[in-house]
Amino acid sequence: MTSKELLREWEQCRAGLRKLAEAIPPGKEDFRPAPGTMSLGAQVLHVASADKTAVDALTVTPGKWEWRTGVDAEHYPAVQDILAVLDEQSAKTRAYLASLGDAGVTAKIKAPWAEMTTEQFFVDWMIHEAHHRGNLVTSLRVAGVTPPNIWG
Known about the structure:
The chain is mainly alpha-helical. It contains five helices and two strands, in the order H-H-H-H-E-E-H.
């Protein structure tokens, strides 16, 4: 995969999450479909926080995987706050991916759980994001919201 292809795949993945986040009704950010599940807002914030962890570990603080980023409902309680932090982190992730070049796609990353290429890492990361998009679709339906079509 080229760096442009990786960026394009990530952009499509993120656009779907952004569209679902926009569908969260104001006042429903804390809605949970069942006890012990993540709220609507927490699903989006979790992805943005994970992105911050990864991009920081790959650029700002190389090799340091800090999971407590402050990207959470306490700091970003309302839909507009959630969208703003998602957009902010998306811009940083986009800039990182755009800077890779084709050689960067095959470079090795040492994550806490395994060593892999940048491509493998971000494919896994997009799978993680897809999981949360699916949870959001289901959770929005339980909240009485028809989720937007993110598949075309």
